[in-house]
Structures are given as C-alpha cells and as structure tokens.
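User: Could you check the structure of this?
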Amino acid sequence: MSPVLGCIADDHTGGSDVAAALRRAGMRTVLRFGVPGERAGVPDCDAVVVALKTRSIPAADAVTRTLAAQRWLAALGVTRFYFKYCSTFDSTDAGNIGPVADALLGVLGGRTLICPASPEHGRTTYLGHLFVGDVLLSDSPMRHHPLTPMTDANLVRVLGRQTPHPVGLLPLTAVRRGPAFVQEHLDGLDVRHVVADATEEADLLALARATSDWPLLTGGAGLAGAIARVAVPEAARAAEIVPLPPGPGVILAGSCSAATLGQLDQALARFPGHRLDPVATPVPAELAAVAVEWLERNLGDGPVVLYSSAPAEQRATGPGIAEVLEETLGLLARRAVELGVRRIAVAGGETSGAVTTALGVEQVVVGDEADHGVPWCVTTTDDPVALLLKSGNFGRPDLLVRAMDGATR
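Assistant: Sure, the predicted structure tokens are below.
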C-alpha cells in the first residue's frame, strides 16, 4: 500500500518537526534525509518525509533537489504532497520558497496554500501578516537572523517578491465561516498562491478540510498535522510504539538560541561537558583531536555533553568557523557510535544535518516525542541508533536532561 502523503522539508529539524506532527495524528511515519536514490525503499507506512538542506541555498539548487525528492515520492505511489518550510517563513527576497512552490505546481498542477502558522508554537497569521507570539515577525528577533533577516511580516508582499505569479489572501473571516465557505472563497480567487490566515488549531482543520483534494499544500508543521487529522479517523490515531535501543547517550549542541543555552545549562549541571572553543584551539585538527580524546576519556556509565553553543559575547566569528564546528560535531557523533553510544540528542538544525551526514543516516522511523515537535527517530539499520533532532528554539528547559533518561550502559 502506497503512503498517502509525501512531505518535503527544507531542513532536517523541520523534517523531524513535521514527522512528529504526522505521527501524533496517527500516521505511521518514515523520515529520510537527503534526496533518496532511485532504488531506495521504505517500510510500510502512511507518510514519508524527505528532509533536505535547502533553506538557505540558491533557488535553482533548491528547486533541483526538491523536484528530485518529489519524483522519488511519486514513484512510491504518493499523489498528495506537502512542502514544509519554517514557521517563521525564513526566506529573503532572493529566497526559494516561492520558486520551489512554483516548480512543484508546475509538475502537479493546480494552486496551493501558503500557511506557516503553527499556533501551538505561537506562530499565527492574520490579514496575511505573520506573528511570533504577540509581535509581528518583523519586530521579533528574526529581524536580526544572520542568513534570513525577516524585516517584512506581510507574507503576501514577501512571497510576491519571490514569484512572478499573483499572490492572494484567504482572510480569517473567511476561514472562520467553515470549509464550504473557504472553498467558495478560494474559487473566487484567480491566483496561484493563497496566503491563509490561521490563529487557532480549528482554523488549520478548516483549511485542511477545504483543500482535501489539492495535490500540493505548503506551510509549517501545523497545517501538515491538520491534514493528517482529517485523513486519519479518530479511532485510528493511537501511534505504534517505537522502542529506543539501550546504550549510553551523548548530547551534541551547536545552536546558540536562548532556548538551547538554557537547556544546556541544565544538562551541564547533571552531566560532564566539553565545549568546542575555536578561539582557545584555533587549529581545526587539534580542536577535533582534543574533543575526541575528552569523549573517549569521559564516556563512562552516564551521558556526556559536547557543544559549541555559546552566548553572543563568547562566540567565535570568522570565515569557515561554523563549518569547522559542524564538521567536528559530526565527527564526534561518529566516534560516539563507534564507542557504543545508541542515543544522541542534537540541538540545532545545521548540527543535526552534520550529524546525520557524518553517521550516514538515510532513513529513520519516527517514535515518541520528548517535547512537542521533537521526536525520537530510530534508524532502520541492524544495529539501530536513536536520534533526537531538536530545532534550536524548541523544547522545555529540561529537554536535554530528559532525553538522556535511561541512556546508560
């Protein structure tokens, strides 16, 4: 039986987030990293998520990789697709959300919704404007993002600068009148892209019901979860248990978000830790060697923490430093698995990509969530490893500590 939904996410933690939303709604979900090979298969499942690393790359490259993932999903028998991007719509005027959506519509036909809203995470849209908590996106810390500074909260305008096609708006007043009126309103819009307002979970359900026959929808994990809840009967929503493999655990952190720094504080109060500091150890090979030696010496009966995360005043800056730190954390993940580690909690999107790449992880089964949107993912290899891939801003303060519960020899 073919999967009923195929999702393409623009980064690894975003893929983990949307996979968690689908599983929470009762879909048996498989998550893959990178564009699968033509012969790659999946175990029996209801949904497949392909997590790419396309968020900040040139639009042409993002289109090429996304279409390759779409072709692979179509070969599995998938007929309904979802393009998942960040709930803060991370994308400059030269960004690739518009070009990728256009390319997918070029293959699948029809039109699509643009809906990053995820009310459970405080992301809402009203009159086409994206809010983070109770402030406009353009007034939030995202306005200072080093790669995708979001200085305009009006998604109709933002997307209109990325696509040659007209962009319309589905206002909250229409959404609140229910699926039938939403369909009627959409039929009156002669546009390819429709930015959809949503401030509550019920709004997402109305959108999902009104567009149940559309081949492509786009947005954050919120709308994807609503699609799954509409597709899966209430009685069938109990997710199957995915056991975690026994063995020691390691925390690897590269995110410098306030949430991750707070989680690291709690983890370092419980477990031994080693910080990768390229100022103190500027030679990359020496930085890695010192960290590997520390890991080998300290990985005993309990979890350990290796991290490059630091507050702004302590961060090293300069060309290539971020890449060196990511590569080192990936190397440490590989060495940890060689030493018997079977549970790895990773903080940060780029760090998650570095770790999965270093471990050669191509496919995981999505298990229970340690926090909302942060599921354990277990590899489908003969000697499985459990990965917790955490977006920098996600999770309660004790997430990393709880993730290591039971992770001992």
